[in-house]
């Protein structure tokens, strides 16, 4: 199969970027691993700190082996009094006691326990200002320092009824009065599948811990605000362009990611709403995780529709929406049971997404390389978070950062897309303006042509009437000179009015009626017959194109008159309203009282007189008029409709 030569170059460039991102993420993942021998580690429930440690580190993680008392809530005094008979074990923190794999020991996560660590400080630390950073516990804790309660999250109890769950990372300030400090943590859990601490408890100066807390909280606020703005921006774009559903799915994807960050990390939601119920916190958190992938797949499916395979697409959508529905109607313990199969599904979904993006890159789709790189970054951070969640690696949660990088890259490419679209629209606007200008020139040319045609008809109409009248005068000169003089005077009077009004665009209809009467008077003398003429509803001051009805009367004499014909003329006018528009309707009727034929209505006609009428109407009321003519029962009628408003 023949391939394009540019594909290998694009692929190599994309692969180079992927390698660089992978190396960066591996370095990030490794930087927090406790391989540095200078960092302290708790052993057998004891840890000793030196001045050099705090000088080299802004904070020290109290990781390592803590004394562990399963199903006991002990105070410092109780431990000292009963040290000889208490059965204790050690547990590595961060970690969960239900993960202990020792022969003959099984620790249920739905229980309560006590952790103890003896911390030794250098003498120079005495009376200094120090603090602990305490992450959330699964699912509630009390912390004592030298038998003094210094921090509490929720309510710790020895039964589910007595326990109230709560998650919120805290900073606790204290001033040591001696070198030896005893830390006791009482932890209770009846809701989660894990019990203990997933993240490290940290020790440092008040200033350094405050700075650390502020940085973490600021980062959370920054990510939440950024995701909210991205979501709102693309939703607004969708409202303006509803046929592009990729904008809607990207907005929803951004929104659920914002909710995820709202319910994790520094738990900004609990800072805003301290009394928020823990059960709904868990539900919202899991919903934000499970709904992310359906919206992501929908977004990619709209951006690269030709590359997506519908069958796996619908399977993944069904699975994740099923998880989401299950989360809404289940208790917290059952909700966490879905986490492992959901994580497996996420990994397969990521592979499927990679396949879509790879096909898009191979097919040289616009911005496919950028989408692939952004998604790779997100995938590696999500993989890091899953391993961190399973307590396999000791890093940090980088998922929100990967999400932000993906969103920023996609926002950039979408903005670039609409920027190009805007440039295209601007180009089309210029071309449209040129087209409109051309059409306007053509229109003006047509108008000029029509006007020239009208002038030709004017010059045709007037000689037509004059020839007929002169023929009649010639006849009467030989038969009756007195009568010929009378006819000649009438013709001169009529021609005087025609010369007066013919060059005008509009004249008062009163002048038109007077001209019609002159012409009928001439025809009376010529034909030696009686003709009746009347008007109904006519306002003499209304404007009308000249010679309209005069021409229609001339046509009537030409086509309707005969020796036996008895003609009468009526011009009727009324106003009608259609919707918001007002029209003037003129009805010109010629009655021939000797005719009895049925009417034959016709809208066609190409006579010189009617064409002259049409051109006059178009000149004065361009596009706002209509003319209908045809036979009536006793003659002929013409209906002219002119839009006023």
TrEMBL record:
Gene3D superfamilies assigned to the protein according to its UniProt record, in alphabetical order: Galactose-binding domain-like
Signal peptide: none
Ranges for domain Signal transduction histidine kinase internal region: 452-529
Sorted UniProt keywords: Kinase, Membrane, Transferase, Transmembrane, Transmembrane helix
Keyword Calcium recorded: no
Top-level taxon: Bacteria
InterPro entries in alphabetical order: 7TMR_DISM_rcpt_extracell_dom1, Bact_2-comp_sensor_kinase, Galactose-bd-like_sf, Sig_transdc_His_kin_internal
The protein, known as: Histidine kinase
């Amino acid at each position: 199969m023949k391939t394009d030569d540019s594909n290998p170059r694009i692929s190599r460039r994309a692969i180079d970027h992927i390698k660089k991102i992978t190396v960066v993420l591996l370095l990030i993942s490794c930087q927090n691993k406790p391989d540095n021998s200078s960092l302290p580690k708790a052993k057998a429930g004891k840890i000793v700190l030196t001045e050099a440690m705090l000088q080299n580190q802004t904070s020290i993680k109290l990781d390592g082996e803590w004394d562990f008392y399963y199903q006991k809530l002990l105070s410092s005094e109780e431990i000292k009094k009963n040290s000889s008979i208490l059965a204790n074990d050690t547990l590595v923190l961060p970690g969960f006691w239900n993960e202990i794999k020792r022969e003959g020991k099984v620790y249920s996560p739905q229980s309560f326990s006590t952790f103890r660590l003896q911390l030794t400080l250098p003498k120079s630390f005495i009376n200094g200002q120090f603090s602990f950073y305490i992450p959330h516990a699964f699912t509630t804790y009390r912390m004592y320092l030298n038998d003094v309660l210094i921090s509490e999250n929720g309510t710790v109890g020895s039964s589910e009824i007595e326990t109230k769950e709560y998650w919120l990372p805290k900073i606790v300030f204290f001033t040591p009065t001696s070198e030896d400090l005893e830390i006791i943590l009482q932890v209770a859990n009846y809701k989660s599948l894990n019990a203990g601490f997933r993240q490290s408890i940290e020790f440092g100066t008040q200033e350094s811990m405050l700075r650390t807390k502020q940085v973490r909280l600021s980062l959370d606020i920054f990510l939440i605000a950024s995701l909210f703005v991205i979501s709102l921006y693309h939703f607004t774009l969708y409202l303006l362009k509803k046929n592009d559903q990729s904008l809607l799915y990207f907005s929803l994807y951004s929104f659920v990611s914002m909710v995820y960050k709202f319910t994790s990390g520094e738990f900004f939601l609990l800072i805003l709403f301290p009394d928020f119920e823990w059960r709904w916190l868990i539900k919202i958190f899991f919903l934000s995780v499970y709904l992310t992938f359906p919206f992501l797949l929908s977004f990619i499916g709209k951006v690269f529709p030709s590359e997506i395979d519908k069958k796996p697409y619908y399977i993944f959508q069904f699975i994740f929406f099923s998880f989401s529905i299950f989360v809404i109607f289940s208790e917290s313990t059952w909700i966490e049971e879905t986490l492992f199969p959901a994580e497996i599904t996420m990994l397969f979904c990521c592979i499927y997404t990679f396949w879509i993006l790879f096909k898009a890159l191979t097919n040289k789709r616009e911005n496919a390389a950028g989408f692939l790189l952004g998604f790779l970054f997100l995938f590696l951070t999500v993989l890091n978070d899953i391993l961190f969640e399973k307590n396999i690696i000791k890093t940090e949660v980088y998922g929100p950062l990967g999400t932000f990088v993906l969103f920023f890259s996609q926002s950039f490419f979408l903005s670039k897309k609409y920027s190009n679209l805007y440039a295209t629209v601007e180009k089309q606007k210029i071309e449209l303006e040129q087209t409109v200008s051309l059409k306007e020139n053509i229109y003006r040319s047509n108008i000029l042509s029509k006007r020239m045609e009208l002038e030709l008809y004017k010059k045709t109409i007037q000689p037509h009437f004059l020839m007929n009248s002169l023929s009649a005068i010639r006849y009467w000169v030989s038969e009756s000179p007195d009568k010929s003089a009378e006819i000649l005077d009438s013709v001169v009077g009529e021609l005087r009015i025609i010369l007066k009004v013919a060059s005008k665009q509009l004249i008062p209809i009163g002048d038109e009626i007077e001209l019609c009467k002159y012409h009928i008077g001439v025809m009376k003398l010529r034909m030696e017959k009686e003709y009746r003429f009347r008007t109904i509803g006519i306002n003499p001051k209304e404007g009308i194109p000249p010679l309209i009805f005069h021409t229609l009367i001339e046509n009537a004499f030409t086509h309707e008159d005969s020796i036996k014909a008895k003609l009468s003329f009526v011009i009727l006018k009324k106003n009608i309203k259609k919707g918001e528009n007002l029209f003037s309707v003129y009805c010109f009727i010629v009655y021939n009282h000797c005719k009895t034929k049925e009417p034959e209505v016709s809208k066609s006609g190409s006579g010189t007189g009617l064409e002259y009428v049409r051109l006059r109407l178009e000149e004065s009321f361009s596009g706002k008029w209509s003319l209908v003519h045809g036979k009536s029962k006793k003659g002929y009628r013409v209906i002219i409709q002119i839009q006023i408003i």
